[in-house]
Amino acid sequence: MKQLFFVKPPIQGTVKTRLARYTGPAKATEIYRSIMESVIARFSPGSCCLYVSGEDREGYFQSRFPEIPRFQQSGENLGLRMGLALLESANRWPSESLLLTGSDIPAYHPDIAALAADKLQYSDAVLIPSTDGGYTTIGIRGGLIDASRLPAQDAAPDQPAIGARPEQTGDASGAAQTLSSDEFLDLFRQIPWSTSSVLKIQKQKLELIGLSVSVMEPLEDLDDARDLHSLFRKGLLPEKAATLVRELPRIALLLPVYNEVENLDYVLTPLMQAGFFRYIVCADNNSTDGSADKARQLGALVSHCSRRGYGSTCLAGMELLNGYADWDILLYMDADGSDDPADLESVLGPVVSGEADFCIGARTTGVLLPHQKFGNWLATFLIRLLYGYSYRDLGPFRAIRRGPLNKLRMDDPDFGWTVQMQIRALKHRLSITEVPVMSRKRYAGRSKVSATIRGSVLAGWIILRTVFREFLLNKKESGV
Q1: In sequence order, which residues have a C-beta less than 8 Å from that of residue 148 and are 6 or more positions away?
Q2: What is the CB neighbour count within 10 angstroms for residue 99?
Q3: Residue (of 418, 410, 427) closest to 477 by Cα position
Q4: Which is nearest to 338 in space by CA: 267, 260, 434, 421?
Q5: What CA–CA distance (Å, rounded) separates 111 from 198?
Q6: Helix 453-478 to helix 417-427 angle, to the nearest 10 degrees?
Q7: In whole angstroms, what is the distance from residue 119 CA to residue 140 CA?
Q8: Same structural domain for residues 398 and 342?
Q9: One domain, residues 13 and 98
Q10: Could you tell me how far CA 19 lies from the centroid of its own chain?
Q11: Is 0.90 topped by the overall pTM?
């Protein structure tokens, strides 16, 4: 059995770019390097080879793994690169089973490779799924490919063309099915790579031409922040990568809650599972439907506020959190299901990575009622007119660093809370960014604000009043 690894030189800005939007490019690169080195080091040099993507200008792989053979990836997309790597390797080692694996699967080790090789004794192919609908490893039995000729246009640019294959003497299958080069490459064409249907389609393509396929237990790979936190929680990261995760800012989550018992399971369960948060606080505004008890049952901390008001509720939640020293970033979300957990990385990323002090999720798609859109437009227009800064939204989905948040000295008790935060962020010259997020229809129940004209008008009046009040306060403080 020969183990092939797809690898990239660990150059900042070129590896783990999705993860880098959350951790920053430097940490993402070092995390990838740590995982890759840890996995490859488990295999003996004679049992594996490296297929390198891109140019290794600094000679990293020659320096780090001098005894392991290296070859250049070629092909215009991931599928073709995989197919060509397996074709070339079948020509080099015609009687060997081949396994092709990514280099970002921390739990991958020789025992798993040996189990996959065993399955290739009675299967034509083996797949090890990832947890996102793709796969981490594909294996083929020795003798499956007739690699006697590689199409000239598909040859790797930095390697000699592959010619006639040596005579096979170790293949005892005799009448077992073989594929031509073109037939084999077709197995990797017309697959929507980086989607949740990759494994299903790849298996179907293999079976459609009569190949037998074994599917093993899934392994987690590393693509984004969710993967990183999941691998960290399960203790699967090598120590250096785990240390880098421990150095990331710690995040607390605050959700203002008023009679949302129908929504809390739907909202809190995916947030708990995401693994981003040191603390999750449901700031209860004297709910009468059992919301506080439900939140506790689901594992959240609960603060209490008897005075009705969005801002007062947030302040009570912050007071509870201030009793804990071990968090660095506070994320705000609504508890009605309108904020999509799929946008967590987008909102948190700029703050966790250090790009910004304050990030607002701007609701550019999804469900916003006409009067909500108008209210947002009017408030952001006034901020632009009075403060010279163009916000896109006043949405509740936002993240802010703890130190800058403390500087704002937030005190608005009502629906002016969000706009007060944005105005005071300008006053204190925080670095601010906005990212597009989806606005969903609330999961259950009726909105306490936008469901009625009266509620919407009252909230709009409070927001506009806050804009002007903050403007006058700034003028007074500046002595103008």
Answers
A1: 164, 165, 181
A2: 27
A3: 427
A4: 267
A5: 25
A6: 20
A7: 10
A8: yes
A9: yes
A10: 6
A11: no
Range of the domain at 448: 249-478
Kindly state the DSSP code that residue 268 receives in the 8-state scheme.
Answer: H
CA distance 420 to 434: 16
Residue 163 has pLDDT above 50, yes or no: no
CA distances for 259 relative to 295, 315, 447, 448, angstroms: 11, 18, 10, 9
d(CA 190, CA 355): 38
DSSP string of 68-122?
A: S-EEE--SSSHHHHHHHHHHHHHHHSTTS-EEEEES--TT--HHHHHHHHHHTTT
Tell me the two tokens of residue 105: 């699967």
Q: Among 367, 365, 368, 362, which Cα is nearest to 347's?
A: 362
Could you tell me if 443 and 307 lie in one domain? yes
Does residue 344 sit in the same domain as residue 465? yes
Domain count for the chain: 2
Type of residue numbered 356:
A
Is 402 in contact with 330 (CB distance < 8 Å)? yes
Instruction: Report the CATH number that the domain containing residue 355 is assigned in CATH.
Output: 3.90.550.10
Q: Average per-residue pLDDT in the chain? A: 90
In a domain, residue 237? The reply is no
DSSP state of 43: S
Beta strand 135-140 with 277-284 is unpaired
Q: Which residue has the tokens 């705000």?
A: 332
Q: In what order do the strands lie in the sheet with 251-257?
A: 301-304, 277-284, 251-257, 329-332, 398-401, 358-366, 432-439
Separation between Cα atoms, residue 49 and residue 277, nearest integer Å: 39
Structure confidence at residue 154 (pLDDT): 40
Q: How far apart are CA 357 and CA 363, in angstroms?
A: 20
Q: Encoding tokens for residue 469?
A: 């009040």
Instruction: Answer yes or no: is pLDDT of 330 > 60.
Output: yes
Q: How many CB atoms lie within 10 A of CB 234?
A: 12
Residue 100 and residue 46 in one domain: yes
Give yes or no: residues 258 and 403 share one domain.
yes
Residues contacting residue 132 through CB under 8 Å, at least 6 positions apart:
196, 221, 223
DSSP string, 419-456: HHHHHHHHHTT--EEEEEEEEPPPSSS--SSTTSHHHH
Does 267 reside within a domain? yes
Checking DSSP bridges between strand 98-102 and strand 135-140, what pairing results, if any? Answer: antiparallel
* 354 and 421 fall within a common domain: yes
Same domain, 194 and 72: yes
Specify the pairing of strand 301-304 against strand 2-7: unpaired
Q: Residue 91's pLDDT band (boundaries 50, 70, 90)?
A: very high
Q: Write the pLDDT tens digit of every residue in 412-447.
A: 999 899 999 999 999 999 999 999 999 998 888 776
DSSP string, 134-148: SEEEEEE-TT-EE-S
Q: Measured between alpha carbons, how far is 71 from 85 in angstroms, rounded to an integer?
A: 9
